[in-house]
Amino acid sequence: MVGEDFENRCASLLEELGLARRDEIISVVPLTGGVASDIAKIETENGDYCVKFALEKLRVKEEWHAPVHRNAAEYAWLEVASEMALGYFPKLFGRSTVENGFVMEFVSGDDVFVWKDALMDRGPVEGEAGTVARLLAGVHQRSARAGFDRRAFDNAADFSALRLEPYLRFVGGIHTGVADTLNEMADDLFAAQTVLVHGDVSPKNILFRDGAPVLLDAECATMGCASFDVAFCLNHLLLKGVHTPEHARPYLSEVSDFVSTYLKAVDWEDVAALSRRIAHLLPMLMLARVDGKSPVEYLDEAQRARVRAFSLHIIAHPEDTLDGLFSRLTKAITS
Ligand SMILES: Nc1ncnc2c1ncn2[C@@H]1O[C@H](COP(=O)(O)OP(=O)(O)O)[C@@H](O)[C@H]1O
Ligand SMILES: [Mg+2]
What we know:
Largest sheet: 5 strands, antiparallel
CATH topology of the largest domain: Aminoglycoside 3'-phosphotransferase, Chain: A, domain 2
CATH superfamily of the largest domain: Aminoglycoside phosphotransferase (APH), C-terminal lobe
CATH class of the largest domain: Alpha Beta
Bound molecules: adenosine-5'-diphosphate, magnesium ion
Radius of gyration: 20 Å
Order of helices and strands: HEEEHEEEHHHHEEEEHHHHH
Structural class: alpha+beta
Helix content: 40-55%
Mean pLDDT: 95
Number of domains: 2
Strand content: 5-15%
């Protein structure tokens, strides 16, 4: 059911941007999956659109507020990523500062699927993670170059509210023994300005279209540290491996593939230092998906307890290399 308010808001947005009049709207169908926005497919007499508005209060159990102007960061991310010509991105039709919403192409077709749905359905398929790594590395690499226009991405405060607080500092409040380590990591990530971080590289924000990834939902976009996007995405793959033990090894192998593809493209900073940061951050994010403000919905209690135990142990006794980390994670996940 779509509320009348929401329908009106969509109609105002399309009207303001000159895309459709109210009487040309045929249907408004909300899209599910996210906790941070109102998003819908709108069918009009002029064609289909996808509209997206940022929510001030996120739909999670814990209190979690975030500024709605992050919708501008998301739009700007889509604009620059499209300009980088690294793959397919939805066409953009404009943004309203009055409504804090924007309109983009509704990406559809027989060959389009949400990566998360496919992973949950049939497990990982060899090579898919590598294509995501290549796309992500491309954005990071180009944004690290001199001359990249960073003005739309001076968003450390929003990134802090949406990512550092709920995933790291909040968890430090629960697991006080590792609080200093988590807070130090949050401080470092807050200070970093090296690349354009997407901030939500999760399979539910990736469509595959014609075999290639389409990365969406960049509302946390900021100049920051590349390790965040890499660790964030790897975390999703690893937790799915915990969830479906029969796919654990294929997930681990996709994780290795992701990392080797990604690291090959790193020419903007020291690879060993970046790998170390990823290796330190990844177990923190694993813990965050169990005890943070955005807990993973598909792990059962026993699986959550396992993730909690091994992540806490690794955070307290960290690995400095990704090989070292993956060999411990392989033992933890497959035994
Ligand atoms: N341009 C688009 N075309 C087709 N589907 C989309 C588009 N944008 C988002 N979606 C679908 O809607 C879901 C939610 O969108 P997303 O931008 O991730 O919003 P949220 O911030 O609420 O997570 C996505 O997982 C995807 O399945
Ligand atoms: Mg999303």
